[in-house]
Structures are given as structure tokens and as C-alpha cells.
Amino acid sequence: MITVEELVVRYGSATALDGVDLEVGAGEMVALVGPNGAGKSTLVDTLSGVVRPASGRVSTEGRFAHVPEGRQLFGDLSVEDNLRLGAWKVRDRDPRHVYGVLPDLEGLRGRRAGALSGGQQQMVAVGRALMARPDVLAVDELSLGLAPKIVDDLVRHLVRLNREEGMAVLLIEQNARLAFEVCSRAYVLEAGRVVTAGACDELARGSAVARAYLGGGVAP
Amino acid sequence: MRSAGVWAVLAVAAATLALPLVLDSGGLAVYVQVAVSASVVVGISLLMGYAGQVSLGQAVFFATGGYTAALVSQAGLPTLAGLLAAPVVAALCALVLGLPLLRLRGHHLAFATIAVHLIFLAVVAQTDALGGSTGLQGIPLLSLGPVEVSTNQGYAYVAWAVLAVVVVVARNIVRSRPGRALRALATSETAAASSGIPVGRYKLTVFAVSAAFAGAAGGVFAFYIGFLSPGMFPVSMSITYVVMAVVGGLGSVWGAVAGTALVTVLVHYLGVLGTLGGMPDYAPSVLTYAVYGLVLVLTVLFLPHGVLPSLADWWRRRSGAREGRDRAGEEEREAAPA
Amino acid sequence: MIALLAHIVSGLAIGCGFALVGSGLVAVYRVTGVVNFAQGMFAVVGGLCASAFLGAGIWHGAAELLAVAVAAAVGAVTGLLALGRPGTAPMTALIVTLAVGFLAYAVLVAVFGDTPRSTPGLPGMTSLLGVPVRRHHLLVIGVTAVVFLALWLFLTRTYLGKALTACASNPYAARVTGIPVARMAQFAFVLAGVLGGVAGVLVAPLRPMSFDSDVTLIVHGFAAAVLGGLTRPMVALAGGVLLGVVEALVAGYGNAAYQTTVALVVMLAVMIWHAARRPSLHQEVTV
């Protein structure tokens, strides 16, 4: 669903991504982890077409949607308007199917998006991306600044969509423990390069990744 | 190869001195106009390229200088005192205006300076001491000691001498430590402020210096033309100065002079073309506006660093890694905004 | 008392023109961050075209609509030039719109000459609460009210209008969501052309218009719009109307030569006060 080959992205003279290869297959749930500033968000921005590659190739199959880091809602508009704008590229602008997945949103539909709590905003951001009826969804830093219970809830919804509707997911996380729990495969990005990739359980057993991202003694 | 630069400067200086002797009267008028306008444009180029500020009201300081020179001379004081007072009064006005106005940035400052321009015109038109809307007549000729400057050739030398002073002052500012700090200011005011540069004071200083340049030019203009009225300083005049600065390359001192010369000469000779037989009577103004518009659009879209810095760049690339490049050219390029 | 009301009505009418020009500035600024210096010129194009079309014998109504359409087309061309290159900085785009203004001067003088033109508006007088007022003044106020109502409904009730607001609210999110921000910006310029054109058509019978009338119009429009931080069309309406009334009162009871000056001083005071209060709101704009 997502194919990235030899991707190089530069901001002026700084190189943000340096020859990255990555693939997400149909129905897969893949994690992309790495420290702050590794280039994770740049990679998704390139998939969205917001950032242009200096060289290499990115392609997405089917409909692609993106939950950007930091929610990035349209703060002046209502929750329902935020959702409906997510459907710009598809004909059907009825948010009912999203209310089916995230029922809490229906109660918030008239509220101004900028006035919501962080967890509620993240839910709107996910909902807005789901409005595009994506075949593959990239979620950038879902857990950032949210209480664990709220994160668990949102992740459960994503996993359900993945299992039941076959929506492929690319989960970009600083919190590798969370990502490894729900994903089958993972890529580790550091300073613009993929340093390791493989099945999550193997990576979690590998001492280097475990020490760097999972914080010492983690049971696989 | 530093001497190559020195020779180039000497050649330019010799040509500058020789030109008034060979130009016809029309050409001489353009020659004076280039020097007068270039003095204003060098100031704008510093202001926009170094302090990151836009002034769409620079003609106000030009007019202030003109009126100051006229009033001082008409009060019976030596005309030279009038010429010297012109930049001082203009700079003082800029300090007073700049204190509140320079809190504004970008578009807000641009419109604030237009507003100041319109207010200035309205106030002058209502002030009898300044001749009201009919203007000040009978400004005496400029006297330098016993010598009265009465010919257009004489004014050409005065105007270019003033421009020479302006260029020297501007180059010194650019090369000074505050000048280098100012470059940082144009790029990012926040970054400059956080590195301890007194942003506000530097901006105000550049604003005042650019006003002094304009005031000096206005003083020369007053003696040269002999009368002043508010109708001579429309808002579009301020905007044409910005056009010249952008065309020449913001932040480039020589670029400002080159941009002014290019635009002025183009406008003048196309204007002459417009007065030829068979052309409708509105042709000159149509051609003038078209030149300003086209030159500006083409520069901004295709030579965003301005004509002279782009030319210098091209020359350097052509001559490759040859040693001993023209130092002046190098600095011009560095001065252009990235 | 009657004189006061008459001044207020005529001030309201001219203020409506300022408000329309100001809302055109807002339309472009909120989506693109560009202050469109050619906005006053859109109004001049509207006014001069209306006078030419009427002179050519086209009916009232049709002539004005056609003039607004021409202004909209000019808006589209301005947008193409100002935003033509991706990554053009707002201040560069401002300079491009200055250049467009000069080019427009050349075209306008070539087509319409350089003498001011006026159009016959709605003729005659009528009585409002016992006060005699020009019927054209009431027409201007009425049309402006309808235009702003339509603008408000468009921005708050339609999908396209909300997408425009979304681009203004968070351009990055708009791009991520797949809203074509560049096309929306282009659309904003067309909208600005329409608003400017309507202003010109309405104002031409009140004040004779020549190619360089754009300076006063744009400055007043900016003054009206800056009250709302250049992003709120309804505040631009209030600001424009306020400026118009203040100017009419200054002209009526004080010195007509200072009517514009008073409005400009108010604008400067508001801007400086804004900047002193919320310095962070004035984003950095480099050339």
C-alpha cells in the first residue's frame, strides 16, 4: 500500500531523510519508531505530498490518509466541519460512519474544535482522516501528550479497523513499546536512515533496540 | 588583484565626472535625476535589505529635505546651510515617526508609511507657511561659498557628489559590526534579538539614516527645480523608489545605484518615444507605468536577488574559480538577501 | 439634526465602499498571508468598466454585473502572478501586487484615458425618517448588506466556504487533508476581484474615479480591515462603515481637507495599539 524507495529529503542544506526504504503491505500494521528529529514526520509529510523528495520514489496505493503530529485541527471550525473537510477527495461527506467507529465524536459534533481537550482533539484528527475512507492510514505520534487510558482507547479503535476492515496502518511513534504491542513489523529510523527493520517481537528481543527505545527490561 | 577593483572605481569616477560635459540637455536632466533618486534608493535598499523594513513613504523624507532647504534659504540664511539642514531635519522626522511606527512590521509598516505619506500631503496642502497646495516659489540657486550653481551641469556635479557621500556612508554602515548584525536582523528578527542585538535601536538608526539620504537628495532637488508643491510628491513616487531598490537588489549599495539608473533611463527614453508624432497624448504615462510594472514583475519573478547581484553571480560563475575576484562584487553578492 | 442624519447616511454609503475593498483584502490575506496591494485597483477597474459599458449603451444592471465580472477576471490574473511561483514569500507577493498595480495603471490609462469618470447611479432623492437622502446612497447600503450577508453565508454555511476558512485556520492541515490550498488561494483572489468590483461599481456614482483612485481606496480598505486583524470580514464591514461616517462628520462639521487625515490617524493609532498589546501576533515577514 505504501512503497518508499531510496527516499532523500532535504531542507535547504540539511538532509532530513537519507536513502530510506520502507514498505507497508495490504492489511498490515507497521510501526515506524525513532527518536525526536529522526525524520519520521518528514517521511509521512512526503507521503502526503506536503514535502517534496530531493530524490527517490514514494507511492501509495488506494486512498491514503494522514493524522498529522500535534492534531492540527481547523480550530475555528466545529468538530463536524473538521470531519466533513476530511472528505474533500471523496464524494460522501456524511460523517455517520465515523461516528460509528468513534461514538464519542457524535456528542461533540457542534463544539469548536480548538476548544476541545487534547484527547478529544486527537479523536477528531483520527476521525477526520477516516472520513477519507482510507485504504491505508498513517498516524503520526498518536500518544504524544495524552493520558495512557485515552491512548489505549484510540489504539484499540485503530486495531479494530485494521483487523475488521483490512485498513493498513503506519503507526509513527516515539513510544516504541506501544507501537510494538500492536504492530507486526517495525522500522527504526535514526538521523534520517533506517537502522533496523524486522518483526516487532524479534526487534524487542534484540538488545540494542530494546535498550534504546523500550527502556531496559521489557518482556517480549 | 585588489587593484583591478580600484581601477574599476577610478574608471567609473572618471566617467561620472566626464558625462555632464558631453550630455545634451535632455540627457543631463536624466543624469541629475538618476543621482537624486539613487540617493533615496540606497537608503531604501539598506532599510529593506538590512533592517527588513518596507517604507512606502520615503518621498515624505525627500519632500521634507526639499522644504527644509527651501525655507532655510528663503529665511536669508546661506543656501549651503539649507542643503546641510535638509538631511538633518529629515532624519529627525524619521526618529520621531519611527519610534511608534517601527513597532509595526511587514505589511502593517508598509501601509502605515503610505498613511504617513497621505497625511503629510494633506497637512502641507493646508499649511500657508509651506505654500499650501500651490507650493513654494522662487527658491534661490544653490551657492557654494562665492560660486553660484546656476547651470544644469553644476547641479549634476552637486547631485553626484551627494550620491558619492551617500554611497560612502552606506558602504561603511554595511561593513561595520552593526551592519553585519543588521543582516541577521533582516533574516530573522527573533534570532537577532535573542543573540543580544539591540534590534529596536538598530532599526530606528537605519530608518533615520535612510531618511537623511532622502532628505539630502530632496535638498538638491529643491535648488535644482526652484519650486516645490505637494503635487510633486505623489504616493506613486515612494513606490517607484521601492521598485528601483528591488530591481537593483535589496541590500546592495551599488545595486541601488544601478537599479535607479536602469529604471530611470528606461522610463525616460520610452517616455520620449511616447511623445513622438502619431502617438496618442496619454502614451508617455502609459509607457512609464508599463515600464515600472514590467521591470518589477520580471525582476521579482526571474532575478529575485536583483539585477546587479545576479549579474555579479553570473560573472563569477563564468570566470569560474579564478583567483582574485573583484572584492566589491563579492560583498555585493553576500549583501543580497538569501 | 437633519444635517447630521444626512451626513451619517452619506458616510455610511462611502464607508460601505471601504468595507467592500477591505473585505477583499481579508479574503486574500486569510488564505495566503498576502496583503494584495492591487485590491484598490479591482475597484477602479469595476468603476471605470461600468462607466464604459453604460456609455456603450448597455442597460443598467447588466453593465454593472459585466464590470464586476471583469474585476473578477483581473483578480484571477493578479493571483496567478502573485502566487505563480510556489514558495513565494508574502512580502515578495506584496511587491508583485505593487507591480500589477503599475501595469494596471498603464492599461487603464490606455483604455480609459486619465480624466476622472463618474457613472449615473440611482437618480433622485427620497425621504428617510423625514430626512432627504440620495436614493443611490440607500442602494449602496442595501447592496453592501446583501453582499456581506451572502459572504457570511458562503463562509459559514457552504463546504467551499468552510474549506477556505480551513486553509486560513491551518494551511498545513489543509494540505494534509487533501484540500488544494493553491487553488483555494487562487479562488480567494477571484473573490477579492468580485468584492473590489462591487465596491467600484457602487462608489463610482459617489466619487468620480480615475486610474489612480486606487491609493485612497486601498488605504481606507486596509484601515477598515486592520481593525479585525485582516482576518475578519465582518469587522472590516464595521471598520469601513465607521471610517466613512467619521470622515463624513469631519467634512461636514470640520475641515473637509482633513477628512482623510482623521481616518488615517485613527488607523495608525489602532495598528500601533495592536502591535504594542500583542506583539506576537505580527508574524515575521521577510523580503
Keyphrases for this structure?
heterotrimer; A: alpha/beta; Rossmann fold; 2 domains; six-stranded mixed sheet; 9 helices; globular; disordered C terminus; C: 287 residues; mainly alpha; ABC transporter involved in vitamin B12 uptake, BtuC; two-stranded antiparallel ribbon
Provide structural commentary:
In chain A, 36% of the residues lie in helices and 27% in strands. Chain A is of the alpha/beta class. Chain A has two domains: 1-62 and 135-220, P-loop containing nucleotide triphosphate hydrolases (Rossmann fold); 72-133, no CATH class. In chain A, strand 6, helix 6 and strand 7 (168-173) form a beta-alpha-beta unit. In chain A, helix 2 (79-85) runs parallel beside helix 5 (118-130). Chain B is an all-alpha fold and 338 residues long. Chain B is built from 14 helices and two strands. Chain B has helices spanning 2-22, 25-50, 58-74, 79-101, 106-126, 152-175, 177-187, 189-194, 199-225, 235-248, 253-274, 283-302, 307-318, 327-335, and strands spanning 143-144, 147-148. In chain B, strands 1-2 form a two-stranded antiparallel sheet. The relative contact order of chain B is 0.17. The model of chain B is unreliable at 321-338 (pLDDT under 50). By secondary structure, chain C is mainly alpha-helical. The longest helix of chain C has 31 residues, at 2-32. The N and C termini of chain C lie far apart (51 Å). At the B-C interface, helix 5, helix 10 and helix 12 of B face helix 4, helix 9 and helix 11 of C.
> Could you tell me how far the N terminus lies from the C terminus of chain B, measured between alpha carbons in angstroms?
27 Å
Which architecture of chain B would the CATH scheme give at its second level? Orthogonal Bundle
Number of strands of chain A: 9
Radius of gyration of chain A using CA atoms only: 17 Å
State the secondary-structure class of chain A.
alpha/beta
Strand order of the largest sheet of chain A: 5-6-7-3-8-9
N to C succession of SSEs of chain A? EEEHEEHHHHEHEHEEHH
